[in-house]
């Protein structure tokens, strides 16, 4: 989001023709100077109307007080932020934890898959890529509802997990409860992982696919075992994809509420669920707006630290 | 290193019956080759002749279909690349883009668990004259500098054999010349066996002690550059390595170490020792002579030509002046397109297109080839690379040439 605004805000350097130039040339130069702005117009207008304006509106909402009957008024009541944070910090923590675990799971599942598509799939490459994107052909809601069926109490998955006593282990870890998977943290994390997996695979694939195969040969030629080659050459070169994939997974997952709503119980509510109910059920707009801004700030802080650590600018 | 030694200790590389087939296509026919330790060995051939496949089989990057590879007397056929004591300079260098020059060069040492690499990396960067660029990334370097990093990265491991796969192919002509001398200097300095794959015959002759000319998956001929140039064993070698005039001639008889021939009514003599084909009276051979060995006289001066020289009449079709020499194309009864390179010492104003001339040369400079082969073999193999030779015309015998180059290399090493 911030990247988009930065792009829109930064004007391109205008070239000024020095000295005296014929009028026709000057007009042409003027046109050339204006062209980038004209091209930016549509995008800038879109962002202004659908991003900047709502943000300003929400920011003002977050410092208002009042009630639905008497109307809300800006009173600069910043304490709403503290109250919201004090009351809902477990939901924030849970959101970050669930989306963090889901992101790690996506990476663990997605990296080998992207690696195989990039280096081993051969003529099946495009077919597999289409299969990766195929879930997008149905709606997010339907796919999540499908997981409700998959993880149903009497379903084959749960009874199998029960029979091989995996659920005993997961219960002991407090990620499932008794012989249920639905309405537990495991179900929510599974849903998040499944829904955001393509966002991990695609950037990973693009960065892996760009790696020159001769670098692997060169590494092997220089006494690196296949595993060392992966550790010292392939993985570092795929880091831009890892960073892009984890961000594209983590950011939307931490604000998601559908998975927790459909696959979890009240004990698995994430911050997205709180915001949704504050806005649509409790109708406490200031608290809902304040929670949204806190979530944005938290994500921004985490992402900044993460990118600093990963050092992507070095890798391009 | 406890396996039984199967090869002579003097050989750095020994290939025995090594072959590679892809489906029904044979890239390399069973190949036996021994490369002496410490030599600069070139595999020369047009693209697709199997030279790179051979190199990759030595490196372990390609599995041979049959045969074995021995390095320093040890059979390494079954070893993966990372266990072989060889290093490769890849065609497009394949430098690690995420590592700086220092780490690129240190890569091999670190993989073998050597902790203190600073001294060695510094020395190696000095050897290739890149000391000041240690902390740059590969993409910040020019092509020639990247090439030297690739050499340093391979050489620092002190491999038993350094493999170079068209290492100069991406450089422009001037830089290529410079790097040829530099590689030769480095090889002399470190004394490691180099196996160099190239399609550039001039590059091979400039740098290598021994050249193996490959064609269609086979080694056509192997020898010192001067020897290959002076005594080609086949029309492919004669045409691919420099330029040759090949004249189809009938054998009339032999006497005292000479073979007597007749072509289009012209009597020619050829030393029997330089005839690669069997010369029996009534048979045909191809008489070859290099363009720079031929002298050109105007028809009016024919009487001044000393006795005992091979002579052929003709007419100048085309001439091009290129500074050190003039190149003539002559139409003669024995061959429609004879090439002659005449050094520009005293220029005869009468030698213009259309002028009648007599070509003459010392019979000792004639070589004989089997007439049963394609007379044009190797001509269009790499038309573009073959075009390099006229750019350096009038080489007065490759023997002198390579002697001069050895001198340069020795000087550079001091």
Task: Provide an overview of this structure.
Chain A has two domains: 2-62, no CATH class; 83-314, MetI-like fold. Chain A contains 13 helices and two strands. In chain A, helix 1 runs antiparallel to helix 2, helix 3 (79-119) packs antiparallel against helix 10 (226-255) and helix 12 (271-282) packs antiparallel against helix 13. A two-stranded antiparallel sheet of chain A has the order 1-2. In chain A, 73% of the residues lie in helices and 3% in strands. With 414 residues, chain B is α+β, with helices and mostly antiparallel strands. Chain B has two domains: 11-230, Rossmann fold (3-Layer(aba) Sandwich), CATH 3.40.50; 244-383, RNA polymerase II/Efflux pump adaptor protein, barrel-sandwich hybrid domain (OB fold (Dihydrolipoamide Acetyltransferase, E2P)). Chain B has helices spanning 51-59, 101-111, 118-127, 143-155, 173-190, 201-207, 225-230, 235-240, 383-386, 398-413, and strands at 11-22, 25-36, 40-44, 66-71, 74-75, 86-89, 161-165, 193-198, 210-215, 218-223, 245-255, 258-263, 266-271, 284-289, 295-298, 310-321, 325-332, 335-343, 356-361, 367-370. In chain B, the strands form four sheets. Chain B has a six-stranded mixed β-sheet with strand order 6-7-8-3-9-10, sandwiched between helices. In chain B, strands 13-12-11-14-20 form a five-stranded antiparallel β-sheet. Chain B has a five-stranded antiparallel β-sheet with strand order 15-19-16-17-18, with no helix packed on it. In chain B, a hairpin with a 3-residue loop joins strand 16 and strand 17. In chain B, helix 2 runs parallel beside helix 4 and helix 5 (173-190) crosses helix 10. Chain B is elongated, with a radius of gyration of 24 Å. Chains A and B meet through helix 9 and helix 10 of A and strand 6 and helix 2 of B.
